Amino acid sequence: MRLRLTSIFVIGWFTFLGLGSVAAKDTGVMVRELARTETSWDGVLLPSYPEGQPEVRILSITIAPGTKLPVHQHPVINAGILLSGHLRVHTLDGQVLDLKAGEAIVEVVGTWHWGESVGDEPAHIVVFYAGTTDLPITQIRE
């Protein structure tokens, strides 16, 4: 057991050092960095984390084929991984991101946008939100 834990620690350390994908011999563990950035997908620098009691939320969201989400924004930093389907994200200024299964997204913060499930299968995404207990994770545009 000690060897296995040491190998896992080494993998984590290599990933922390930015060495990309790492596999440890004989452990059955593979680590692949999906995203590492200081900007959201539209190239804008991420904001500083807000003051207050930190709160992390993780949501599993499934969007039926052909469904268009309402225009909304996120006041907190969030990132996700599209597990299946095809998700197209639009900003009001005309930027578009096509996200395919297995790809990661670092979402825009404080920017009005919407997403739509494109294709024949539902878009299933897991999203991680890093905010504070007093901030909503999403605001819908009225």
Order of neighbouring strands in the sheet with most strands: 3-10-5-8
Number of strands: 11
Averaging pLDDT over every residue, what do you get?
89
The largest pleated sheet is described as: 4 strands, antiparallel
CATH-defined topology of the largest domain: Jelly Rolls
Number of helices: 1
Describe the structure in your own words:
With 142 residues, the protein is mainly beta. The chain has two domains: 2-31; 54-140, Jelly Rolls. The protein is 11% helix and 39% strand. It has one helix spanning 2-16; strands at 22-23, 30-31, 54-63, 72-73, 77-84, 86-91, 96-100, 104-106, 113-117, 123-132, 139-140. The protein has a four-stranded antiparallel sheet, with no helix packed on it. The longest helix has 15 residues, at 2-16. The termini are far apart. Residues 1-11 have low confidence and may be disordered.
Describe the structure using short key phrases:
3-stranded antiparallel β-sheet; 4-stranded antiparallel β-sheet; single chain; 142 residues; Jelly Rolls; disordered N terminus; mainly beta
Topology:
Elements lengths: L1 H15 L5 E2 L6 E2 L22 E10 L8 E2 L3 E8 L1 E6 L4 E5 L3 E3 L6 E5 L5 E10 L6 E2 L2
Task: Give a short summary of the structure.
This protein has 142 residues and is mostly beta strands.
